[in-house]
Amino acid sequence: MSDVKDSGGSHVDVDLPNGWDRTVHDGPVALVARPRRWLGDLTPTLSVTRSRTPDVATLAAYCDAELAGIVATVGGHLVHLATSHRPRPHLDLTLAIELLGIDLTVTQHHLVDLPSPAGPEPACVSVVATAVVADHDWPRLAPILVAAVRSIRVAGT
Amino acid sequence: MSALLDVEAGRVVATRRQLDALQSWVLGRGDPDDPVVGDLASAGLIVRGVVHPAVNPVVAVLGSVVARAAVRRWCGGRRPTVEVLAGATGVLVLPGGHEVDAAQELRWHPRPTAVARVLAEVLGAPAHDGPPVFGPGRRPWAELVAAAGAPGGVALADLRWSSRPGAPLTSVMVLAWAPDGGVVEVVPVDGRPGCVTCRPRAPLDVWTGLTTLCRQVTRG
Is B117 in contact with A142 (Cβ distance < 8 A)? Predict the structure, then answer.
């Protein structure tokens, strides 16, 4: 388990796969982890970031905003998309993309804090665990990476 | 059908017969008096005896195929079979069926490692979960084909794969789904020809299956 304090002042936990080390834990990127040793051409990574999405008040709107952002930035093929309010609002997203000439699978788990109706402005604050792996390594790493990103937990200070 | 080359739009349209002639031309076996070669020259795919540079990626894949896939699809009726060729120089998609004179609106990708994503796009299985479109009971294959031939949005796809040049295509993944998700894998029942059963599959399972299938190509 890796427990760090993110830029929003919350403690972020994620269960790292065996043999993985956290390498960065500063700024809006709360955590970056990767295997200690890797023989392939692209080392898989797991990162946890915290972001704020303005003008979004519902989980459905958050999902739409995320998809629009992805289409506008990385494109790719949407492999999996799921949202649920239980046990707390979250979005699961998996994409197959090309980046810098490498074909990658990106799987994410978003923990979404929906704005209070009485709040000053609608904005979702989310903590997002993202695992990135080359397509040819996905079959071997899929179970542990999906488990890792879905293990993310946030506890207030 | 006349071939088409639109460099600005990135469009190349050609039939399989024309692609064969193009490949023969590159290999030095083309006949300048062949009317198919004349079509290619008229369309600008061959210019003063040389293949147009914009078509080189297509020719390169055709000459280096290491694996190929064919996706048979039904959704509101039979759709043209899409063939995907993976070679050392990239991936080529022929979406217009197997007929030699059918127009192929070609798509290609410069890296062979894109093959899993290309196949996922061609299959078009939904990304969201949902109730299984068919239950696990045994049923005739023809019943699934009939369901996918009727209005209502049920889709059926049979992915066939050949892992080496010249090897026959073998069915490796048969999927069905509804517009609201609910992907199932269609599996033959042993000893009951024409009879199948359906197993629920998550979208991630489908992607894992494709990336596993394509590792031979994507690992280089």
Answer: no
For the segment B104-129, what is each residue's pLDDT rounded down to a tens digit?
999 999 999 999 999 999 999 999 99
The rounded distance, in Å, linking the Cα atoms of A94 and B202 is 12
Report the pLDDT value the prediction gives residue A70, as an integer from 0 to 100: 85
Is the Cβ pair A103, B208 closer than 8 Å?
no
ipTM over 0.90? The verdict is: no
Contact at CB, B207 and A101, closer than 8 angstroms = no
Residue to test with chain B: of A66, A67, A79, most B Cβ within 10 A: A79
Q: Phi and psi (nearest 5°) for A21?
A: -120, 145
Question: Under 8 Å CB-to-CB from A118, ≥6 apart: which residues?
Answer: none
The partner residues of A129 in beta bridges, in order of sequence, read: A48, A109
**Mapping DSSP to helix (H, G, I), strand (E, B) and coil, where does residue B46 land?**
strand
Is A82–B113 a contact, with Cβ atoms under 8 angstroms apart? no
Distance CA B72, CA B171 (A): 10
Question: Residue type for A59, please?
Answer: L
Please give, rounded to a whole number of angstroms, the shortest distance from the CA of A53 to a CA of chain B: 23
Give the strand order in the sheet containing A11-14: A2-5, A11-14, A153-155
Beta strands, E only, B59-208: 65-75, 78-87, 90-94, 104-105, 107-109, 139-140, 155-162, 170-178, 181-188, 195-200
Q: How many CB atoms lie under 10 A from the CB of residue B53?
A: 9
Binary contact (B120, A76; C-beta < 8 A): no
* Contacting residues of B for A96, CB less than 8 Å apart: 116-117, 120, 207
| Closest CB from B113, B202, B203 relative to A135 | B113
Q: Is B202 within 8 Å of B183 (Cβ atoms)?
A: yes
